[in-house]
Amino acid sequence: MATPTPVRKARAALLGLLILLLGMGGLLAYGVADGRAQWAPLLALDLEGGTQMVLAPQVEAGEQIDSEQLQQAVEIIRQRVDGSGVAEAEITTQGAENVVVSLPGVPDQRTRELIQASADMEFRPVLQTGVDIDYVENVLLAEDNEELTDEEAEAIEAEVDDAREEQDEEAARPEDFPEPEGEPQHNSDLNWITPELAADFENYSCSRDASVEERSSAEADEPMITCDPNSGATYLLGPVDVPGTLISDASFGSAQDRPGWVVHLSFDSEGTERFREASTRLNGFPQGDPRNQFAIVLDGHVISAPGMINPILDGNAQISGDFTEEDARNLAEQLRYGSLPISFSIESEQQISATLGQDQLRMGLLAGIIGLLLTAGYAIFQYRALALAVTIPSLIVVGVITWWAISLLGWTDGYRLSLAGIAGLILSIGLTADSFVVYFERIKDELREGRSLPGAVEAGWSRARRTILASKAVNVLAAVVLYLVAVGNVRGFAFTLGLTALIDVILVFLFTHPLMQVLARRKFFASGKRFSGLSADELGVDVLYRGAGRFARSNVVHSGAVEGETAAESVTGDSDNPARAARQDEVPDIPEDEWAQMTIAERRRAREERSRASGAMADQAQEEVR
């Protein structure tokens, strides 16, 4: 006999789950071998400890900040930290001015710089460009600079040598430059450059360590001199065209028309109008002219200065260049969270111990183990061997997938598991068991209606599937809402709750149901053996068909494709039970899968209709003979 179609589908689903497990395990093993990941999940601040930084506001003498400004700064810093992939961070206020940022583990340089980049962002037109050769030689080409590859260092050295030949060793003086021809008409007008400003630009020295006040002293309606500390390029910029507060969103992605990465930038209604005017003006200058560029200034430093290819009329711009994925991500985060009402500096930094510690971690894991044992014990009591064959293996598989998923997220996105997250995992044990209960009870209901076990599995799945999906959709929706409106550890609880709900759906579709399809063809379960969880005694009902048209209140029929038995031999009952006559070979027009899902009454009607049709055909043949 050919393998039934449900079994083939079940084997394909189980193979898909195996491929998923091997893929997750292999990817995590690669990360561990490469030294960038670990088998155990990363722990959050409350369980591992970390770094605490106190940020002090940078304000001019005599000025003070109010509570509303401070709360706004806290919220933007929190968005920056969360956007950088650091989970379970704590950002609070200290006193009337300071902000305390507590991060798990030791923050990397990228996260540290993101927290310190706390000034207003500005979009300014470029008037002139240059390069600080001394800065490039002393900083970028320093022996301890490990960010440059050998090829990049050689290219920079060649550019420095060329610039040295053209450099005038004497300091520039205002009298060396002409006076403006008139009043500036727009922000890109070269008449902004006075002799004094031109001399200052020629003598300007780039510095990565300059204070916020030194870098951001220019007014919004005045030109400014600054540099890009990552390249040593110097810039003479015009007044502000668009403030960073008018940015509505920023993201990054792969370029559509060529290899590489791009940054997508969008403005609100006011920003769209102002950027339309600025981009149209910049686009009027030819490519290669410095005035074709606009500089994105953060904390007084230029973080990017792209050229204008086309006017941006709808407020949605795309910044392209030789970006790596990390470069594009960093620029998008700086654009998205680049505007703060006040600037901060790191006043102090210290290592802190875990706020809860290992005792609470052990108690949380112990609670999870107890919950798992109680769930498994109840399942065995309720479903006997069915729990041993399906429920417990399903819990093991979902545990492995969840563990590896959290470990992978810790490697790729910096996710850290807190005690609140562990609480979400413990709660998910019960939610996962709900799916088994719904499915198994649907199968029992179908058995009580007189279906064979293979038919009950398919019919029960078609009904249970809708219930399970609706239940998990509610869980995911609740987790998403809680994650969006909550902060701190509560978000960790919401995240694990939503993650396990999605994993549960994968498990039910790729493991629980396919495994039941396979077990339904095994004699122990299909014949309703004692302690199988599907016997008549365990279902609490009697066999429906008593013979000679007598029916009890409910029944259980164990029949269908049991390996090693015929259809007639697999029917439960005594030897003269008329149900044995309800064989599929008497009704060959009905497919085997459909026959397996039919009740006894439906099979009798099919036999009777087939018999009447055969009789009618015989009568017609006799009439033709006469």
From TrEMBL:
Limits of the Protein export membrane protein SecD/SecF C-terminal domain: 343-520
Residue ranges, compositional bias (Acidic residues): 160-169
Domain Protein translocase subunit SecDF P1: 70-126
Segments forming domain SecDF P1 head subdomain: 230-342
Keyword Nucleotide-binding tagged: no
Topology of this chain in the membrane: Multi-pass membrane protein
Subcellular location: Cell membrane
Cited Pfam families: SecD_1st, SecD_SecF_C, SecDF_P1_head
Description of how the protein assembles with itself and partners: Forms a complex with SecF. Part of the essential Sec protein translocation apparatus which comprises SecA, SecYEG and auxiliary proteins SecDF. Other proteins may also be involved.
NCBIfam families, A to Z: 2A0604s01, secD
Job of this protein: Part of the Sec protein translocase complex. Interacts with the SecYEG preprotein conducting channel. SecDF uses the proton motive force (PMF) to complete protein translocation after the ATP-dependent function of SecA.
HAMAP family associated with the record: SecD_B
UniProt name for this protein: Protein translocase subunit SecD
Record gene name: secD
